[in-house]
Every structure is written in structure tokens, then in C-alpha cells.
Amino acid sequence: MADIKSQDKKKHYISRKESREIAKNNSRQIRNFEKQKKRKIRPEEYITEMKDERNIVEFDDLHTFFFSDAGTVKAVNGVTFSVPAGSTVGVVGESGCGKSVTSLSLMQLVQAPSGQIVSGSIRFRADMFKLDSHGNKIPVYETEVDENGNDILDENGNKQFKLDSRGKKIIKKNELGGNMYEMETQVVDIAKMPTEAMRMIRGREISMIFQEPMTSLNPVFTIGNQLDEVGRLHIEGISKEKVKERSIEMLKLVGIADPEGVYKKFPHQLSGGMRQRVMIAIALLCNPKLIVADEPTTALDVTIQAQILDLLREIKGKINGSIMLITHDLGVVAEMADYVVVMYAGKVIEMGTAEDIFDRPLHPYTIGLQKSKPTVDQVADELYCIPGFVPNPINMPNYCYFRDRCEMCTEKCAGEYPGYVQVTPTHKVACYLYKEGAKEENNG
Ligand SMILES: Nc1ncnc2c1ncn2[C@@H]1O[C@H](COP(=O)(O)OP(=O)(O)OP(=O)(O)O)[C@@H](O)[C@H]1O
Ligand code: SF4
Ligand SMILES: [Mg+2]
Asked: CB of 248 closer than 6 A to ligand 2?
């Protein structure tokens, strides 16, 4: 009896010795990662190329771990998928499967020092500022032009710049009212990029809509203050009047009826749906190419949810951008996404077009998810529930992570974690039941 008790204890508790070892290992690993981040990273180390030119983001074997007191949490454990430009990609999976950590890795917002991108790449096609030999941005100046809009040249063939009252060249303004700088399109690896360079991308090129607008908005500042702050931070050289104009324009764009009135209000004076609209307005302020929406409708009721989804769809068309939509709600994905990525325990287990995933789900987990979705045309006493639990992210098994819950498991599944099988050109699955180009006949 005593023996069983002590064995149980062993299972559930970490001994003092183990705890010391974990702490020692954590501090060593964290020190190494932080040291890497602090050193001067040259552009050659993070400028790269896309595997497929049609994509705007490519996650490639991304590993993001948390070094916790209980051990290493492999929150994202080898994630590979891409977001084609102009499309909406839905990322689905149950709670804790690593959806948010994947998106936080893309924004370089993983909670450091315990959270670290350990390996892999996140390639992103970005419009970056061109820098001179001193590392400064290169402004575009206003020039004297003739009535046809052509530059007037002096006798040496040089452009003539407009000067302000102090005799200084005037920087041209861009479409947002900020200073115009010379730009170049570069593919960067966000996983290896220094924090300062990432600041040029975050908010300007990629913006994020968080799950809970009440906690994301600051309760002591007006909506106007919060919108203006983002504008001032990311649109360099914008005037006070222009920034307010832009904020109100964005509130109008997200369907707020009295934008001037809402501009002066505090978050607590708005409903949940209105607050989420404000969050979307903040995200759109700098014309991002990619919007990451992490459970944007989870805190809202169904009618408001439908309105927010309509709004996101409408806006995507207007800004000509892409959306990475994270949710555990299959209904939301079915309505919005062109492509679907299904995650389970830190890995992508299936991906394909929305039709592939909804009409022909292959992985037993995806099939289970579909079965557990309530439908109006079916009468059932009880809703289907996938049996069992997600494995502990600290001690992942060395076989298929879904095996202990799988109702379609075969003897082959005893092997190591299954690799990807390209079932059709658009549809990929990590499961032993399938082989390249087709399903195995006996599993029909
Ligand atoms: N700061 C942290 N420290 C330790 N572990 C963390 C931390 N943040 C996330 N994790 C762990 O990483 C794993 C993935 O978490 P993540 O937040 O990405 O899940 P999710 O798929 O977004 O879930 P949900 O649908 O509930 O939002 C979970 O096991 C979680 O406990
Ligand atoms: S590999 Fe086997 S255990 Fe894993 S999901 Fe497929 S059938 Fe189930
Ligand atoms: Mg999440």
C-alpha cells in the first residue's frame, strides 16, 4: 500500500532534485537564447527568400517552447504552413494546441524570457525601409515639378527640391499623411530578426486583433487617445490633425455610426461588439498586409459575431490583405476561410482548402471535430465528444499524439510520429491511414 502511494507521488510530483535540474537547464537555455538576441544581428542573417512567391507568410518547422518550472512546454512543436497572399487561412484546434503561441511567434510577442522561438523560420514578405550606410532611413523629398507633373531639372540635370521657410528640404507625405521614405520589398525571417527591425513590421505590416477587447483596450484612455497613439507611433511625421482624421476614418470604416462621438468615449461606455470594432479599427490604422485575428468573436454573442465576421470579410477586400484567423469554432472557419490548418498538441495534423477539410476530413481528430459540431438538420440525444485528453505538452509521447484517443488506430500506429502524406495537391495529413495521392483502400 505504502509502495503504491509513493509511486503515485512519484508520478504527480517533481522531486527536489529533478526540480533543481529543470531550473538549471532552464536558466542555461534561456541565457543562451537571450544572448543570441542581444548580439548584433546582420541583415544577411534574416533576409531570406520565399519558398513560394504567392505566399505572404511561410511558417517552416517552427518550434516555440516555454521553459517552465515543471519542464519544457513544447507549445509549438514543428509547425509548417503558409498564408497565400490575399487569402484567409483559418487555424483551428482545441484549447492549448498552440494556436495563439504560433501567432505570437509571428508577432515576436512570445512571453520572454521563459518563452523562446527555439528553431524554424517564419518567412514574411515585408515592405521595409531602405537604409543608408549609417543605418538611417532615406527620405523622399518634395521636388519642383512642371504643369505635367515632371521634375524640373537644373542646368546640371539635378532635381530641384522644394524648401521650407528655414531652407530645409521638405519630406514628401505618403497616403496616410506620414513622411515618405524609400522602401524595398524584402523577405525576412521573423524568427531570426532583431527586435528593432521587427518594430518596423509589427503594427504597420502585420497587426493583431486579440480575443478580449475589454482587456486589450486601456480603460483609462478614450478610444480616440488609443487610436491616435497607434497612428503617431507607426506613421512617422503625421500631424495631430491628420492622425485624428485617420482615426475617425477607421471608426467609420468598421461601421461605427457616430465615429466622432465614439472617438471621445471610454471603453466601458461601449458594448462588446463596439469594442471589438474599435480593436479592428486600431488594427487597420496603418493599412497592414496581414491581419492576425486571434479568436476575434469568442467574447461576442452570435448576432454580433456574424456582424464582426462580415466586417472582417468586407475589410479584407478593401485593404487587399490576408487574414490569419485563429479559432476553435469550426462554424467561423467554414464561413470565412479559404484554407484551413488543423492543429493538435503543438503540431499541424491536417491542412487543405476549406472544402478539403469540411467535405473530406481525413485525420481522425478532424473527423471527430466535425462530428462534435452541432447541426440543425440532425437530431441527437447527446453531442459527440472526442474521448480522452490532449497529452501533457511537457512529456509528449514518441508516437502519434492522437493515438491514445483515436478510434481508428491500427497496428501501424505503434510506430513513431507519422510524417505528412500529400493526399491531393492541396490536402495534407499526418496519419498512418493514408498514403501519397490516395487513402488506403481498407480504410476507404
Ligand atoms: N506563458 C506561458 N508559459 C507556459 N506555458 C504557456 C504559456 N503560454 C502558453 N503556454 C502553453 O502553451 C500551450 C499552447 O498554448 P496556446 O495559448 O497557444 O493555446 P491555444 O491553442 O491558443 O488555446 P486557446 O484555444 O485556449 O486559446 C498550452 O499548453 C499552454 O499551456
Ligand atoms: S496515425 Fe493512427 S493513431 Fe494517429 S490519428 Fe492516424 S489512425 Fe489515429
Ligand atoms: Mg489562444
From this structure: no
Nearest residue (by CA) to ligand 1, atom 2, is 66
Mutating to test ligand 2, I would choose from 417, 432, 434 the residue with most ligand atoms within 8 A of its C-beta, which is 432
Residue 76 pairs with which residues in a beta bridge?
A: 64
* CA-closest residue to ligand 2 atom 6: 431
Q: How many CB atoms lie within 10 A of CB 152?
A: 10
Q: Please give the share of the chain, as a percent, with pLDDT higher than 70.
A: 93
Ligand 3 centre to CA of 51 (Å) is 28
Q: Name the β-bridge partners of 67.
A: 72
- Does 171 sit in the ligand 2 pocket, CB within 6 Å? no
Write down the pLDDT at residue 221. 95
All structural domains of the chain with their residue ranges? 33-129+187-360, 366-444
Q: Could you give the CA distance from residue 361 to residue 340 in angstroms, rounded to a whole number?
A: 11
Q: Report pLDDT for 362.
A: 96
Q: pLDDT tier at 387 (50, 70, 90 boundaries)?
A: confident
From residue 381, how far is each of 2, 365, 378, 384, 430 by CA, in Å?
A: 45, 22, 10, 10, 32
Instruction: For the domain made up of 33-129+187-360, give the CATH fold.
Output: Rossmann fold (3.40.50)
* Sequential DSSP letters for 313-349: HHHHHHHT-EEEEEES-HHHHHHH-SEEEEEETTEEE
CB 418 near ligand 2, within 6 Å: yes
Q: 441 pLDDT exceeds 50?
A: no
The finding on whether 75 has its CB within 6 A of some atom of ligand 1 is yes
Closest ligand, as measured to the CA of 432: 2
